[in-house]
Amino acid sequence: MADITLADVELAVKTTATTVLNNEHYFSDLDGLAGDGDFGTSLATGFRVIDADLPTIDKSAIGAMLLKISMLVSKHVGGSSGPIWGTGFMKAAAISKGKQSVTLAEVADMLGAAIDGIMARGGAKLGDKTLLDALIPVHEALKAHAAAAEPDNKAALKDAADAAEAAIDATRSLVAHRGRASQVGERSANTPDPGIVAIATILQAWCGAFGVERTATVAEVVKAA
Question: Containing domain of residue 188, as a range?
Fold first, then answer.
């Protein structure tokens, strides 16, 4: 199994920015079903800056690059997404500090640290109908692959994308307990969470960027892709 290089992480960030920008209005439309309709715009505002600055961002190490990205997200992404996504990148940066490449197990550790940071920052947990409902099963998928005798990065990415997409339907009927959607109570049931859709859409885009054959099946990801 080859390690994940700094260039791989940069490609993942670039792909994330492109995906967020391409779906700015769509993610906001999804947010408008139960929230205030600005999720896509808020996220795109920050990732537009990241996309523009990425060529000149410090790439002396994976951690240095992710730390700068966390700062840009925290500064430029509005609403609750800025602190949440910024914290995630910051915690992942701490695990990858000084590293030119990371193993799949270290990627799982980076995501685990990001999840812990997001939970501490926002107070959400599994089942609250937030992006954590996608990130936590993705983390479990990555850990399972990392523990294999011969980990397969592409298979791990496919299973991670499967887990994130499954989270959309698994949480669709839930009532949101965090974020703006929680303020509308029962009206948030039977609507997709835009944060979960965003994570699933980004992972689907990563599959394309890294040559992983996968076909989206949940309507929201199919439409975004």
Answer: 4-224
Other Cβ atoms less than 10 A from the Cβ of 215: the count is: 9
* Structural tokens at position 153: 């990065």
Q: Which residues of 117-128 are buried (b: 16+ CB within 10 A; e: fewer)?
A: bbbebbebeeeb
CA torsion 150→154→156→162, rounded to 10°? -150
Burial of 217 (0-12, 13-18, 19+ CB in 10 A): exposed
Torsion of CA 123, 116, 19, 187, to 10 degrees: -30
Collapsing DSSP to helix, strand or coil, 101 comes out as strand
What CATH number does the domain containing 36 carry?
A: 1.25.40.340
pLDDT digits (tens, 9 = 90+) for 94-124: 999 999 999 999 999 999 999 999 999 989 8
The pTM (predicted TM-score) of the whole model is: 0.93
Q: Which residues contact 8 (CB under 8 A, 6 or more apart)?
A: 210
What is the count of structural domains for the chain? 1
Beta-strand ranges (E) seen in 150-218 are: none
Residue 44 · residue 81 · CB < 8 Å: no
C-alpha closest to that of 90 among 77, 74, 109, 101: 74
**SS3 category, 4:** strand
For residue range 195-211, what is the model confidence (pLDDT) as tens digits?
999 999 999 999 999 99
> Phi and psi dihedrals of 44, rounded to 5?
-65, -35
- The least confident of 25-29, 145-149, 162-166, 176-180 is 176-180
